[in-house]
TrEMBL record:
Catalyzed reactions per annotation: GDP-beta-L-fucose + NADP(+) = GDP-4-dehydro-alpha-D-rhamnose + NADPH + H(+)
Keywords annotated in UniProt: Isomerase, Multifunctional enzyme, NADP, Oxidoreductase
InterPro entries, sorted: Epimerase_deHydtase, GDP_fucose/colitose_synth, NAD(P)-bd_dom_sf
Binding site for substrate: R189, W204, R211, D280
Sites where the protein binds NADP(+): 12-18, 107-110, 142, 165-168, 181
Site feature Important for catalytic activity, where: S109, C111
Protein name stated in the entry: GDP-L-fucose synthase
EC number: 1.1.1.271
Organism expressing this protein natively: Entomomonas moraniae
Pathway: Nucleotide-sugar biosynthesis; GDP-L-fucose biosynthesis via de novo pathway; GDP-L-fucose from GDP-alpha-D-mannose: step 2/2
SUPFAM superfamilies: NAD(P)-binding Rossmann-fold domains
Domain NAD-dependent epimerase/dehydratase: 8-229
GO biological process terms, semicolon-separated: 'de novo' GDP-L-fucose biosynthetic process
Length: 323
């Protein structure tokens, strides 16, 4: 059988991450990509997931489905964030094992690491300190996903891999001004400020925190690269007792620098006001991507190029963008 004919299930294909993985797989030439909408397959329903894997001969899974959001959403809906993410990953990973599906890639988040982890953050920093309180429930769910993969690998010899992407942005992002992450929220806020001829834009926090941002198609390229590595090559960089790999650019910038760049891209020339009463979150979060680079992959899309691409997508899809 041609490797490009393998049946690949991308869970969460309508989201920003899942849709980017589908684009990458198609660009490489994979022809049998299987997707299901939330209405067609509720990943919170274990029996539905069981039946889906029984009825479809899946050979690989990219587990990109998740409940995600920014600081406000994580603070407001902690129960939903921990419950839904735990249920999705437990159902998919366990039922994949029961269906004898041997290859799976679980997508986590850089928020799994301690709030004050040494920078840049290495993979072995996991579980060495306290998490950032504003997104702790989400982070714990993602840590559980990593440990699920590790556990099925150890006990059953599965090839379940995990990647921890940095902060992502790009097509199909959530552009809600309050419940989204910082890049799409600011893109929309500055865009509307220009439309409404506003003199200033208010930005949460002090602007001092340092963040790493990665264009989602860049991340998808890295995910497929990690998934396609021979087992011996993958194990060389994930042993002992690690199943996850950081995915990022290796570069960061302050929120203030980000805001200035987005103002430039959207054509906003007014004043930037930083609301110090709002939380900053983690002071700095930069991933150590030396393992990923040693595996033969490096980021190829710089921040300004990626932001321009993301803004162009927003302009072209303004009516259907999640706002």
């Amino acid at each position: 059988m041609n490797a490009l004919d393998q049946a690949i299930f991308v869970a969460g294909h309508r989201g920003m991450v899942g849709s980017a993985i589908v684009r990458r797989l198609k660009a490489i030439g994979y022809t049998n990509i299987i997707t299901r909408s939330r209405k067609e397959l509720n990943l919170l329903d274990q029996q539905a997931v069981h039946q889906f894997f029984e009825q479809n001969k899946i050979q690989q899974i990219y587990l990109a489905a998740a409940k995600v959001g920014g600081i406000l959403a994580n603070n407001t809906y902690p129960a939903e964030f921990i419950h839904e993410n735990l249920m999705i990953e437990a159902n998919v990973i366990h039922e994949a094992h029961k269906a004898d599906i041997n290859k799976l890639l679980f997508l986590g988040s850089s928020c799994i690491y301690p709030r004050l982890a040494e920078q840049p953050i290495r993979e072995d920093s996991l579980l060495t300190g306290q998490l950032e309180p504003t997104n702790e429930p989400y982070a714990i769910a993602k840590i559980a996903g990593i440990k699920l993969c590790e556990s099925y690998n150890r006990q059953f010899g599965r090839d379940y891999r995990s990647v921890m992407p940095t902060n992502l942005y790009g097509p199909h992002d959530n552009f809600h001004t309050e419940n989204s992450h910082v890049v799409p929220a600011l893109l929309r806020r500055f865009h509307e400020a220009v439309e409404n001829k506003q003199d200033e834009v208010v930005i949460w926090g002090t602007g001092a925190p340092l963040r790493e941002f990665m264009y989602v198609d860049d991340m998808a390229s890295a995910c497929v690269h990690v998934m396609e590595l021979e087992m011996s090559s993958y194990q060389r960089y994930t042993q002992p007792m690690l199943s996850h790999i950081n995915i990022g650019t290796g570069k960061d910038c302050s929120i203030k620098e980000l805001a200035k760049l987005i103002a430039k891209i959207t054509g906003f020339s007014g004043k930037l006001v930083f609301d110090n009463s709002k939380p900053d979150g983690t002071p700095r979060k930069l991933l150590d991507v030396s393992r990923l680079e040693a595996m033969g992959w490096q980021s190829g899309i710089d921040l300004e190029t990626g932001l321009n691409n993301a803004y162009q997508w927003f302009l072209e899809n303004h009516q259907k963008a999640r706002t």
